[in-house]
Predict the structure.
Amino acid sequence: MGIMYHQFDLDNINLDMQPPMEEPARQYYFMAKCREHVRKEQARLGRPLTCATVTFGCQMNAKDSEKLEGILETIGYQKADSEAADFVIYNTCTVRENANTKVYGRIGYLGMRKKKNPDMKIALCGCMMQESQVVEKIKKSYRFVDIIFGTHNIFKLAELMYESFTKRHMVTEIWEDTTQIVEDLPSEHKYTFKAGVNIMYGCNNFCSYCIVPYVRGRERSRKPEDILAEIKKLAAEGIVEVMLLGQNVNSYGKTLEHPLSFSGLLKMVEQIEGIERIRFMTPHPKDLSEELIETMKHSKKICPHVHLPMQSGSSRILKAMNRKYTKEDYLKLVDNIRASMPDVSITTDIIVGFPGETEEDFEDTLDVVRKVGFDSAYTFLYSKRTGTVAAKMEHPVPKDVASERFGRLLAEIKKTSEERALRYQGRVMEVLVEEKNAQGDGMLTGRLGNNLLVHFKGEDSLIGKFVPVHLAECRGFYYIGTLSEKKS
Ligand code: 5AD
Ligand code: SF4
């Protein structure tokens, strides 16, 4: 929808000059160069050129895709509804094995499309491309791919595209890691009322199962003034809800020249007029501070929701996972959070079938699930990622044992989360209206501060607005409600 504008005017860039060395000026130069190319192509073909960005994986990737789309739109591409486009980017995820398999299948399918439209360009980026064996495989078996880049240089899309337009060979540029953060590039946002904002990149935790630290590099925080300037700009454009994004938001600001805590940052964001709701993802339980709990408790804008990945309830497995907390630490943390904010919603991530997980370990996970009563949980079957410490661990859990445990875990979570959701029945609560239902039944979908979804009848004009909704009927994970006069 909206595109965030910036201080660079493409029309005033002298394209006969050598590209500037400094960023982001260099990228605006290449955007102008690519735009010239796109205009020529459009004239030749007598139609607009289209683009499609397909995103796999997490919020971090979704945010990166908005940046890619911002660049593509600045260059002059029109967004296509499907992958039948002139420029297609796959922004990939590698957190679990099946994510990779899915991508290979779809790249093959893109290759068939390209046979019909030889001018089509295919670019691959994201976490999967940070793995050298993946890039080797693509170079060998998917030679029709035009551009491969990684997680650290997405800001260079225009420069890589220009190279591809002029040289017509496969352009590959992967960086091992970076300390660079390039600010002030264009960015699309999917919604006109809510947006994600990166506050930091990378992860230093090296949980033994996780590939993220290898593909997203070391932690680096954006300067608070850059984050605040971005959020103020978003607020001026009508954004009312922001999601602060980082792999481990609790360690925000530690490496800044003038260190600042995550709570300190939250308090600054809270001051921004027009921003009504603040969310964040993801805090690591090992260093969720008392200060953060206090900040949330006293805030009128920070949503009463903590996503607190537990991964396992067994202290033994947590140690093997290198999570640096025990079952008891986790339970105590939840108690502390609930003692300060009785109504807070707590959600989690759980992995089943980590190497060496015994029935007893799994019982510990179930025990925590029962004791905490999560409002919802994402559950994953352990997936071996080459290059991580856990990939070399002995005693893999047999597939059938892991699936059986997975089923039991799901049943337990369903029970506790339905119980939790029920506690709002009959209340009138503030909802931010997000979209109309796909079924075209005149219903809207909105979200409560605690992240629960509510469906209710209403006009499309309410999208992006806060309205009070009477939560009439709990349907497990969501509510059916009716618009109400006022909050109770
Ligand atoms: N196998 C299964 N799940 C994983 N996750 C991360 N790595 C793996 C893996 N190798 C899950 C964790 C994390 C979520 C984003 O993905 O639960 O919190
Ligand atoms: Fe992966 Fe652990 Fe970092 Fe999360 S905190 S990204 S699970 S290494």
In short: The mean pLDDT is 95. The pocket of 5'-deoxyadenosine (ligand 1) is lined by residues 95-96, 209-210, 309, 311, 349, 351, 380, 382-383, 385 (CB under 6 Å).
